[in-house]
Amino acid sequence: MNTKEQKAIVCRDLTKRFGDFVAVDHISFEVERGEIFGFLGANGAGKTTAMRMLCGLSHPTSGQAAVAGFDVYRQQESIKRSIGYMSQKFSLYENLTVLENIEFFGGVYGLSDAKLNRRSERLITTLGLGQEARKMVGSLPLGWKQKLAFSVAVIHDPAIVFLDEPTGGVDPVTRRQFWDLIYEAAGRGITIFVTTHYMDEAEYCNRISIMVDGRVEALDTPGNLKHRFAADSMDEVFYQLARGAKRAAD
Amino acid sequence: MRTLKFLLRKEFRQIFRDKSILAMIFIMPTVQLIIMPLAANYEVKNIQLAVVDRDHSSYSQQLIAKIGASGYFRIVADPRSFRDALRLVEGNRADLVMEIPAGFERNLVREGAQNLALSVDAINGTKAGLGAAYLTRIIGDFNTDVRLEWVEPGRFNPMATIEVTSLNWFNPRAEYRFFMVPAILVLLLTLVGGFLSALNIVREKEIGTIEQINVSPIRKWQFILGKMIPFWVLGLIVFTIGLTIARVVYGIIPAGSLLTLYVFAAVYLVALLGFGLLISTFSDTQIQAMFVAFFFIMIFILMSGLFTSIDSMPVWARTIAYLTPVTHFIEVMRMIVLKGSGLADVSRQLLYEGLFAVVLNGWAILNYRKTT
């Protein structure tokens, strides 16, 4: 168990079946504390399902996993206290203001009033949302919504934050700013577990894994992977691995 | 506790920002409570009567005039034959046909007996039954009048008769609004509370915000309670508005204590909201939730004794009726508002509602899963 406490995430043969369909097929990997871990794969490869199991949103069918030292079968509620999560679908409340969303999510994670005030002020300044603080979140442009969603996901300083395609549909400038936020959070010691489709973003990660048809087919640093597949870019690495996929993209 | 505070703050903010919900909560009950009791009236009036008078005597005229003066009947036609009269019934222009045979007056005076024929369009059973009953009563009265006129006073009373005099308690003039308004108030509370709660959690599922809740350390009971309390408060507000309208518009002042009413309403609301939230935890979309809620609330209301008497239902139906929380509340509302029953009188029903509340909410909490 000692090793589990050292690692942010430990995953052994984690599997999820839906009937006959094996969405996630015996995946095994470890994520170090403070690491930015890229979780890549084509659409339908099983990334989101794997992530949902690690977050305690979905029961694994078999295999083992520990997140922040807690077991995914028995200690889901402890996991939930230690992580942040940003889903693929924007899920802040659109009919609440920026400040109200921050207050709500900070509040339910048990931040004290003083901490809540300090952090929401800092967050508003960092994001440059001073003018919009009292506007409904629904009225913000997508890029700002995503940055806000990320900041809210880490407002309680979780050990690990899970990001499911956080930059989908966002322009390159905003994506850059988004990664600045990720680096800033990683600098505070938060482990980042991120899925993405953008191969330039994969390069920002310390290590990446690539999932094909429910299995982890490769796991290494971006540099090593390029070397191993004799590729110039991550795009090429990804293409070489993913073109063998049998599963149709959804 | 602190988590619950943030949940409640969020829910209240969202509710008060949603104009359609506010309209549903405040305007709908007001309008319905003003319109429905006026329309939901069981009194049978304006029964259309066709009279085939073959006698054309002064007695037959007196009888017809007496019937017309009763206020229950409208004499719509004076057909020549019974066949013509039936045609009127077929054309929906008459509900009842009374046939006065030729020689009506003569037979009545000479022989002291005469037959009258009533034909009733029984499609609307209530109207037919009551119409025939009213008419029989009026003819009976007429009969007594005739006998008094023709028989010598001293000799009248050839046989002993039992006169029945009944006294209406609690609702002396047997007015329907006194009977209906309290029940319609329950109906409104049920509609507003049932639908709002049924649509709420599932709405978060549809938008996707429930994921963010499920991945947080919010406990299941906290989440359900956070959904329940705002609607509970709103329900009591709707109840208060309803009682005010009942008082101002219909002059209905509860005979029993307001406290008893509110205690019961409070427990009832917990049960009802538990039911709505349970539907919400089962459904994936708002449309699903809407249909399921509609299905059950329809049954609840039709079997609740709002429109029909539970005592006259078959046993199996009565069993179902008592398995719904609405039935008990309607019964108790009428008891408290009209009879002035106290907490002790309604304790059995209160116990039932409490049981519903525990079971439905417990089930909702169990059925709501943070991990699938």
Main attributes?
heterodimer, A: about 250 residues, alpha/beta, Rossmann fold, six-stranded mixed β-sheet, four-stranded antiparallel β-sheet, 10 helices, 10 strands, B: about 375 residues, mainly alpha, abc type-2 transporter like fold, 2 domains, four-stranded mixed β-sheet, 14 helices, about 5% strand
Textual characterization of the structure:
The complex is a heterodimer of chains A (250) and B (372). Chain A has 250 residues and is α/β, with parallel strands linked by helices. Chain A has a single domain, classed as Rossmann fold. Helix content of chain A is 38%, strand content 26%. Chain A is built from 10 helices and 10 strands. Chain A has helices spanning 2-6, 47-54, 76-82, 98-108, 113-127, 142-153, 172-187, 199-202, 222-228, 234-242; strands spanning 7-18, 21-32, 36-41, 62-67, 70-71, 83-86, 160-164, 191-196, 207-212, 215-220. In chain A, the strands form 2 sheets. A 6-stranded mixed β-sheet of chain A has the order 6-7-8-3-9-10, with helices on both faces. In chain A, strands 2-1-4-5 form a 4-stranded antiparallel β-sheet. In chain A, strand 7, helix 7 (172-187) and strand 8 form a beta-alpha-beta unit. In chain A, helix 4 crosses helix 5 (113-127) and helix 6 (142-153) packs parallel to helix 7. The longest helix of chain A has 16 residues, at 172-187. Chain A is globular, with a radius of gyration of 18 Å. Chain A starts with a helix and ends in an 8-residue tail after the last helix. The mean pLDDT of chain A is 86. Chain B is mainly alpha-helical and 372 residues long. Chain B folds into 2 domains: 7-40 and 173-367, no CATH class; 47-155, abc type-2 transporter like domain (abc type-2 transporter like fold, 3-Layer(aba) Sandwich), CATH 3.40.1710. Chain B has helices at residues 2-17, 19-39, 58-69, 82-90, 104-111, 125-150, 176-207, 209-214, 220-250, 258-282, 286-302, 315-322, 325-339, 347-367, and strands at 47-53, 73-77, 96-100, 117-120. In chain B, helix 1 packs across helix 9 and helix 7 packs antiparallel against helix 11. The longest helix of chain B has 32 residues, at 176-207. The model of chain B has no long low-confidence stretch (mean pLDDT 85). At the A-B interface, helix 3 and helix 4 of A face helix 1 and helix 8 of B.
